[in-house]
């Protein structure tokens, strides 16, 4: 989940100075409009120690009109507070209509800290999170706008920062926290996943570069305000309007995909040898899974011409046809359209011991349907949580779930398109739609990045496949099957 | 929670025959409109064994156009079904847009049965319920209408029915279930409370009288359909419109309040003696609570002139003024109006060891605000769940929570109003608003009944006080304090 916040986004000083004045102006305008509309805004500033949450809040104070803002840091509970239920101290700091509250820490801190230190069992932790989710839904239903920002630092960066001697790192608890980086990551991931609701989603901010961190925060707040204001005014296509409102950081930023090393390749003879060995293992594992009644579901998504079909064939060649099924997902049928969008995937779930391979999947909801505007923003935003719930129900049932994104560069994609066009035996593979999709690469990259971030869970992480070299990609996919099944069986 | 379904509602044969033709006509019309509007309707028929769920469904089949209905009974899982996650078998029976599905049992049966037989711990049970709630929210967000009916029988009635020899009672599991009546009640109550959402609330149907049971089912389904259809059409005041749509069963039915024995009274000398003894105990208990840091919250609601003030004074006289506080809840201040409606009650929560007495409370949301139309239907429907969550957070924090409804007959109320009007020292107590409220007694009775049903939880049940005789009522209230605190300290 946090990989997408470790891709090294940064903004140069010059770029920052170019962007900042306009951002501030628009933030002030949005703040004024939200106040006039009587919207209570709650900005939750959370994240790892050392990520500079204090710096972010100071920056917001210089950007915004502080007369409409109350900032609260929730440290140790006071006597007054510990004598009441946990939410009491937050309730008394809730902003009235037309005001903004900035919460440092908030209702997430205590459960996450207690979980990371092992004071809270996983059942009770999840119950607390459910209560938080219900509490937030209650506030949103009453008209509140809740903007939740999670500031992330890679472990190495955190260590480096905490070595510096300053007032903050001298606080004893900061060091105690840093020692439990992994436990905190795990608890944080669970907390974010369980409370990432359509009405108030989480935004993960890469905090390594201060300028990027501050600009991203400003834009996320601005976007949330504008989306809400547009919705109040009944703007026809809020999706378009607000997506366009934050181009600067989007272009300045890198996505998780930029981190894939596309130079990886395999020589033919190495490939042949490796693939044969892997397929042999996969064949044996598939029979073992069948005998044990252990079910497998694999999802393939990726750019057009990234090699999904070829990779799937390398997998299925190793498996008996009675044991697997490839489900080609195209436009839904009439009957499917008459149901919930997950229905058609639910009904294809394999029986015990079988392997189902979805060639494209339920992720269409947050990819093509999002980019093409086929689905309203509210609906696809809600889909992340729905998909996570759906996948959790598979995993709870003991199903092995694998998800692959096949990645190629736009240049390699173009080469493959042109090759297909030239080759009469492959020409049918390429359509006008492929060319149209290609033009929207930028929008798709944003969608893919968000998809991977919001749905890479510990039980069902995404595997990003380096698809520039077909052989490398195919071996990577088959190896992932072998590794995962060896682990789960 | 189930008390409201043990009040002995019944409908005579003559009345039934008068009502049924019109009900059927309106049901058919609503069914047609819902089909035309493309709404998928899910009717969940759940409840205790022997309540006649089969009979209800048969009746619905005669009333409705069965071409648009698919009925599914979820008994033992098939091989096919047990090889997939639990929701799979329900998903494949979900109705397409414009159709209706009647689910016998549904996703609630398994968790409740497993809980009642002790196969499921309370933590895992609650997790299953949370998953169900999320699943239902997902369907509703996609446009589904979910109508959830729980058919209730008192234990005695169930026993009587299961003694009869017929095909159904010969089923072995029916008898096994009946033996665990209490365990089923408890699990069912938890399930209903945790999944009683504003978007798809539960309706509890008293199933003792078959005619009442069938008519109530028909009207609840009709009301749910009409509310949804009105909302689609953007009818201005759906609250009014749809409340008026089901007058017949409402008038034919009795509420939980009709069950209060208002003839109970106390002689003056008995009262004096009892009250003094109770107050002495309460005094000692209040100091003990203070020493232990044990907090108490008491809520008083009731009819105008039912004697709330007098009862509260009998309690507070026993307690040191430093330890208790009476919170008079009147119209909210400007500041309070600028927050969530629960905010003003949250902030009045007492410190450890203190006793807070709310003279009127957060229940105004589902009483006066509902009846006077100050709050939209969606908002007050959602409030039951919000209030249950709020009260659960108090109880989890170890707070003793007591809730009193002071009940008097309309005749006694009138006598007290007139007495107040005559007495110059009391005239200030009575306002035009009191007279106006009195005229809406019927609407208030419906609201009170629903409030008690939906918010009588095992940790915070309502106490209905027989207020016709002031002495009896006061002694009952003080005794409730003594009993509850003795238990909790």
What does this structure look like?
Two copies of one chain form a homodimer. Chain A is an alpha/beta fold. Chain A is 54% helix and 12% strand. Chain A contains 23 helices and ten strands. Chain A has helices spanning 13-36, 53-63, 79-82, 88-91, 109-116, 122-141, 155-163, 167-170, 172-178, 181-194, 210-233, 238-244, 247-252, 268-292, 308-316, 334-337, 343-346, 368-371, 377-396, 410-422, 432-439, 441-455, 470-488, and strands at 41-47, 69-73, 100-104, 145-152, 202-206, 296-302, 324-328, 355-359, 400-407, 462-466. In chain A, the strands form two sheets. A five-stranded parallel beta sheet of chain A has the order 2-3-1-4-5, with helices on both faces. In chain A, strands 7-8-6-9-10 form a five-stranded parallel beta sheet, with helices on both faces. In chain A, helix 1 (13-36) runs parallel beside helix 11 (210-233), helix 11 packs antiparallel against helix 12 and helix 15 crosses helix 23. The radius of gyration of chain A is 24 Å and the shape is globular. The model of chain A is unreliable at 236-248 (pLDDT under 50). The interface between A and B is large, with 52 and 52 residues.
Query: What proportion of the residues of chain A is helical, as a percent range?
Result: 40-55%
Biggest chain contact:
A-B, 52 and 52 residues
Q: Which residues of chain A form runs of ≥5 with pLDDT under 50?
A: 236-248
* Head-to-tail CA distance between termini of chain A: 25 Å
- Biggest sheet descriptor of chain A: 5 strands, parallel
**Number of H/I helices of chain A:** 23
Radius of gyration of chain A (CA) equals 24 Å
User: Structural class of the helix and strand makeup of chain A?
Assistant: alpha/beta
What multimeric state do the chains show?
homodimer
Outline type of chain A = globular
Tell me the strand percentage band of chain A. 5-15%
Question: Count the strands of chain A?
Answer: 10
Strand order of the largest sheet of chain A: 2-3-1-4-5
Average pLDDT metric of chain A: 87
């Amino acid at each position: 989940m946090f990989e997408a916040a470790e891709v090294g986004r940064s903004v140069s000083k010059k770029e920052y100075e170019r962007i900042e004045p306009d951002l501030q102006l628009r933030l002030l305008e949005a703040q004024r409009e939200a106040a006039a509309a009587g919207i209570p805004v709650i900005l939750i500033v959370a994240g790892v120690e050392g990520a500079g949450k204090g710096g972010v809040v100071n920056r917001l104070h210089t950007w915004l009109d502080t007369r409409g803002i109350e900032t609260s840091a929730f440290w140790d509970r006071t006597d007054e507070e510990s004598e009441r239920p946990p939410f009491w101290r937050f309730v008394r700091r809730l902003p009235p209509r037309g005001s903004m509250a900035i919460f440092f820490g908030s209702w997430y801190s205590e459960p996450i800290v207690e979980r990371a230190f092992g004071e809270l069992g996983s059942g009770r932790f999840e119950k607390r999170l459910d209560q938080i989710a219900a509490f937030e839904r209650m506030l949103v239903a009453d008209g509140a706008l809740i903007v939740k920002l999670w500031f992330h630092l890679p472990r190495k960066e955190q260590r480096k920062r905490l070595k510096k001697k300053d007032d903050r790192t001298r606080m004893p608890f900061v060091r105690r926290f840093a020692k439990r980086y992994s436990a905190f990551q795990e608890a944080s991931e669970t907390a974010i996943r369980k409370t990432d609701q359509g009405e108030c989603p989480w935004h993960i901010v890469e905090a390594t570069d201060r300028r990027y961190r501050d600009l991203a925060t400003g834009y996320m707040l601005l976007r949330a305000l504008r989306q809400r204001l547009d919705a109040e005014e009944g703007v026809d296509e809020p999706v378009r309007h607000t997506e366009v409102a934050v181009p600067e950081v989007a272009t300045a930023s890198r996505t998780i995909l930029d981190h894939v090393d596309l130079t990886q390749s395999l020589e033919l003879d190495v490939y042949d040898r490796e693939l044969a060995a892997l397929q042999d293992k996969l064949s044996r594992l598939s029979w073992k899974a069948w005998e044990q009644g252990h079910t497998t579901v694999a999802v393939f998504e990726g750019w057009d011409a990234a090699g999904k079909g070829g990779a799937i064939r390398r997998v299925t060649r190793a498996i008996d046809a009675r044991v697997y099924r490839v489900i080609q997902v195209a436009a839904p049928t009439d009957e499917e359209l008459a149901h919930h969008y997950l229905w058609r995937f639910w009904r294809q779930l394999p029986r015990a011991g079988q392997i189902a391979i979805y060639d494209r999947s339920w992720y269409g909801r947050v990819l093509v349907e999002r980019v093409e505007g086929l689905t309203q923003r509210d609906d696809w935003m809600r889909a992340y949580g729905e998909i996570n719930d759906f996948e959790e129900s598979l995993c709870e049932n003991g199903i092995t779930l694998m998800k692959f994104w096949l990645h190629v560069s736009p240049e390699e994609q173009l080469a493959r398109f042109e090759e297909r066009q030239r080759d009469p035996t492959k020409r049918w593979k390429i359509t006008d739609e492929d060319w149209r999709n290609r033009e929207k690469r930028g929008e798709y990259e944003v969608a893919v990045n968000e998809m991977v971030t919001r749905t890479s869970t510990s039980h069902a992480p995404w595997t990003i496949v380096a698809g520039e070299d077909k052989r490398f990609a195919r071996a990577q996919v088959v190896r992932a099957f072998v590794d995962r099944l060896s682990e789960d069986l």
